[in-house]
Write a structure and sequence with these properties.
By secondary structure, the protein is of the alpha/beta class. Helix content is 28%, strand content 25%. The strands form two sheets. A nine-stranded mixed β-sheet has the order 1-2-11-10-9-5-6-8-7, with helices on both faces. Strands 3-4 form a two-stranded antiparallel sheet. Bound molecules: adenosine monophosphate and magnesium ion.
Length: 234
């Protein structure tokens, strides 16, 4: 029950029970209450705090990948929120979970992607790295993150898999912000070298309705309350 919203970009169909489950839990925050200057910051914590939603996501993705004629040999997750989803899938499938990390975080000899921009601009463009040998020729890799926005992050993962001589089976995220055309960025990159790689978001931005807003209405205080101040308020 998937819907192809653009070529090789899929989401769960509107009547999917998992889509509903995710929508009930997912919260977004406006810039006033979030760390980034994006209109709707999707809070992965609202998903992790609902263990049954996590279980639903895990069971769905495990079944999806286990049933492939050629199942993945590796799950690879993006620093940092991809780390919340990838391991629970990889342990069920019995395959390694590989950490894609920003330059300066991974040990060993590294392969580094081209620099990429994100929906919220960091001070300078970041690059992703993996350890040489963590995947290799013949590896079949699923890439995992919480959100697909402009797609810069996802593309860095495709580059690292390609540059390891491996194949990306699919990029998967909980939320795909369709309007930001993240799948298109990868699919049109480098003369279409990644155009056949499926992108899959469990839900799109239509689940982030006004009712999903996590902002505290009418709050005028500071967003961050220090330890001593918080103690004094107990
Ligand atoms: P992008 O590279 O633009 O596709 O951005 C995706 C990455 O940035 C993901 O790793 C997300 O964790 C984070 N991100 C981008 N936009 C948002 C958003 N609106 N809400 C939450 N996280 C976001
Ligand atoms: Mg991220």
């Amino acid at each position: 029950s998937l819907e192809e919203v653009e070529p090789n970009f899929f989401i769960l169909s509107p009547d999917s029970p998992l889509r509903e489950t995710i929508q009930r839990a997912y919260r977004w925050y406006s810039p006033r209450f979030s760390p980034c200057d994006v209109p709707r910051f999707a809070d992965v914590g609202s998903i992790t705090e609902e263990w049954s939603v996590m279980r639903g996501i895990r069971d769905f993705l495990v079944a999806r990948y286990r049933n492939l004629p050629e199942p993945p040999t590796h799950i690879m997750g993006f620093d940092a929120r991809g780390f919340l989803l990838g391991p629970m899938i990889s342990v069920e499938l019995g395959v390694p979970f590989v950490l894609m990390r920003k330059a300066g975080k991974n040990p060993g000899i590294l392969i580094e992607s081209e620099p990429y921009q994100k929906e919220y601009k960091e001070k300078r463009a970041e690059a992703m790295t993996i350890r040489c040998g963590s995947i290799g020729k013949g590896s079949r890799v699923v890439l995992v993150d919480d959100v697909l926005a402009t797609g810069g992050t996802a593309l860095s993962g495709l580059q690292l898999v390609e540059a390891s001589g491996a194949t990306t089976i699919e990029f998967v995220a909980i939320l795909g912000i369709k309007s930001l055309k993240g799948a298109q960025l990868s699919h049109s990159y480098g003369n279409g070298r990644f155009s056949k790689i499926p992108f899959f978001a469990l839900v799109d931005e239509s689940v982030l309705t006004e009712a999903n807003c996590g902002d505290t209405a009418g709050y005028n205080g500071p967003r961050i309350i220090g330890y001593r101040e918080a103690l004094s308020r107990i």
